[in-house]
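Continuing the batch. This is chain 6 of the set; chains 1 through 5 are on the previous pages. Same settings as before, nothing changed between runs. Recording input and output for traceability.
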Amino acid sequence: MIVGRSERGKPPVEPVTLKILVAGGFGVGKTTLVGAVSEIRPLRTEELLTEAGRPVDDTSGVEAKHTTTVAMDFGRITLREDLVLYLFGTPGQDRFWFLWDELATGALGAVVLADTRRLGDCFAAVDYFERRSIPFIVGVNCFEGAARYPADAVRRALDLDDDVPVVLCDARDRESVKEVLVEVVRHAMTHSADHRRESLTT
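Output for chain 6:
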């Protein structure tokens, strides 16, 4: 048996690797999402919240949260034999936004994670990706006890374009997160194809 070849004699598949960002407000579930789906032990850069940070870290609605991401979360998932996603979770607080530009370099697309109890917290992420023409979808993390709203209602509240997908999800559930990631890849690919067609016709 030849190492690295399948039993049918086909050469091994060289997977396409894509970079996806996971963004959103403080405490919305970005670290949880990356950890739920990653097939490797996720890299986390979490630090304990301190009294010194209380004046700048708004914990309203997430009072039970005791840690925060200070650089990024990183994970990996193989969606198909020929498709691997590298996931980069961004820090949520304003004071760490200077890291976003570096994390966004080379990204195919992004997931903006939203909490309907604090929907305004994801406006900054939506604006960031819109300004840079990075295709994104909105994943509504359905927290226990939070009111459920239809995707169209969330779209209107965030003033999203009609072509931006809004997906309800559970950031703790692997299969639910996989559906979100499949949707962001599909949306980014469509966005890229549309952009190429526009370039050819101008």
